[in-house]
Write a structure and sequence with these properties.
The chain is mainly alpha-helical. It contains 8 helices and no strands. The chain is globular and about 40 Å long. This is Tellurite resistance protein.
């Protein structure tokens, strides 16, 4: 599964110059959506930041200023947003169906990075999935796969699980 996420992160933004984060860059939209999930429970943990940084650094081969620029651009865009539309419309425009499903898996990986998921994180991933056209079934399958990757024992279903 990590290989699938790796391919996904490599696929998006391939048309952008290496290290350069443009406002319409799909990578910025992905990082902003990750921040939306990370902020959903009111706390951005070090483990969530670390997981996001690890994925971005490894898959885009970004280091130093390039990595910081992309993460900062995504965080800033996420902080300025009043809703998910800007990011989800970028994602729908730039990613195919399989890539959008893999994005939901990535968002679940971020949600579980701190060892658990909150009802608010669950709701944010559900809303993003709906906006980018990922079915409830695919969303739940990606959540279950992320749960296995994180090796966490989930304490039950949250409202909204299909």
């Amino acid at each position: 599964m990590f290989e699938k996420i790796s391919r996904f992160l490599q696929d998006i933004g391939n048309d952008a110059p290496r290290g350069e984060a443009r406002p319409d860059d799909a990578r910025v939209a992905v990082v902003a959506l990750c921040y939306q999930v990370m902020e959903a429970d009111g706390v951005i943990s070090d483990s969530e930041r670390s997981r996001l940084r690890e994925l971005i650094e490894n898959q885009y081969d970004l280091h130093g200023a390039g990595l910081e620029e992309l993460i900062s651009a995504g965080e800033e865009a996420g902080n300025e947003a009043v809703d998910f539309y800007r990011f989800t419309s970028d994602v729908k425009r730039h990613l195919d169906e399989d890539q959008r499903v893999r994005l939901i898996g990535l968002l679940w990986d971020i949600a579980y990075a701190d060892g658990s998921r909150s009802e608010m994180e669950d709701n944010v991933v559900w809303r993003i999935a709906e906006l980018i056209g990922v079915s409830g079934r695919e969303r739940v399958l990606e959540r279950q796969a992320a749960l296995k990757r994180a090796a966490i024992v989930d304490d039950g279903e949250l409202p909204g699980d299909d």
